[in-house]
Sequence to fold (304 residues):
Amino acid sequence: MAEQGRQKVGCSDTKVKMNAIDNELSKIVGLDALKLQLAKFLKGILLDERRRALGLTLGPRKLPQLAFLGNPGTGKSMVARMLGKLLHMLGILPLAKVTEVKAECLVGENDDDIRFPRTELLKRAAGGILLVGTSFECLPRHTYGDVRFKEIDEIISLMDSGEVVVIFAGHPQGTELLLSWCDGIRNRVSDNVFRFCDFSCAQFAEILRFKVCNADENSPFHGFKMHPECTVDAVAARIGASQFGVGLLRNNGHAVDQMLVKAKENLDSRIDVECADEDADSLVTFTTPDFASAICMVELPYVY
Fold:
């Protein structure tokens, strides 16, 4: 009876953790295929921990190593932070922290000068996630320019330490070239490659609405709201119809906050200061034209 009671408690705990995983993943707008892949990945880890708790004989636990492929602003860093939180909850990582470093910044001025050797990287990231940002500069010398890549051996050693989860994250083409060149990294992440798709018009508009309607007290948009006619479909239609829409979508999340700032500028510009007190609600209500005009006002740092 006591054994049955322990099994029921364990089963309940597993269900609570799975619900927590589903709750966190539900906060991701769009990226449906990615969310399904993440759910499968995390459920597998959760069930392995349950099997061990029941005394079943399994192979040695190894920390997962991953690769995130996606254009700028698709949510790679956000998902890495979420993953750190969930792996900590599952007992896989002692800490929920994420340490970010760009691979091309790991080396110093000379070929033999490794800026962050394994010991330093381990000191900074131990117990959590090391998020290594990759780019076109993260390629071997014979493939692209004179980039030095001796730090890769340091990172591979770190991946095998059992003390940190390493995530390579960056532009699809640059990261895929890195994986194709470096067998050591590819073999360690091959089962855990996650692809982040660009936002659609509807997803971009949905994120805009979410950021306004769910802004916390520290957000500059706290207290603002959307006009009933300023729906996700209405804003998405304006983005799709604009000649600047393609560039906006290519910048994904990087353009969302800028668009909100420009929309607020449009809201401010159409408010008559002398009559502002007569309709306080209008002071904090975004309309579809506010966003439509903002589309062409957003600066686009990433155009490719």
Q: What stands out?
A: Strands lie at 66-70, 98-102, 129-134, 165-170, 193-196, 225-226, 285-286. The chain has twelve helices and seven strands.
